[in-house]
Prior knowledge:
By secondary structure, the chain is mainly beta. It has two helices and 13 strands, in the order βββββββββαββββα. The protein has a domain at 38-150. It has helices at residues 97-104, 163-166, and strands at residues 2-7, 17-22, 29-33, 40-46, 49-55, 60-61, 66-67, 75-81, 90-96, 108-113, 119-124, 129-134, 139-145. A four-stranded antiparallel sheet has the order 4-5-8-9. The protein has a four-stranded antiparallel sheet with strand order 10-11-12-13, with helices on one face. The chain is globular.
Amino acid sequence: MLHLLGVRKSMKKNDDAVLVAVDMEGQVWKTICVPSGGLSFRIGLSQGCLHYATTPLATVDKNQKKKSKESNTLIASLWCMEDYDSKQWILKHSVSNVELQSVTRVEYKVAAIHPDCDMLFLDSCVDDTLASYDMQHRKFRQILNLGENKATLFVPYVPLFSDSLAGANGQ
């Protein structure tokens, strides 16, 4: 199945994000609701199951140009769909915005999900840093300074190992 993330309405705080899935022949389509809780989100295959991660973007009071008290309650979360047919997400880990920022010192958004463990790769919203956060062990690690001309969007590469495409066009 090919999975795409989308939003049912214009991107506002309480709008529903959805996962659209289509089989490789384009015959079977599914729409799966994903948990709410952030404007920065990613899907990925990790530990043999579909995962969904979200990190909050802090709410800024436009009149005072500072973070509102509401941003203290936002959380980063990692969800897993163990039974694909049920379409039910199970919350594996979460961390409050306050706890995450007490470790990182700056605000981050999720860039990718590690394929083998409960780790998120994070992109700094302020500086040019790529980092990881192990949700299970609550460990933050800066990985790389991306420099001034950093990418604003990360698209993880996922290899496709499929016999159905191997013989296409005689190759």
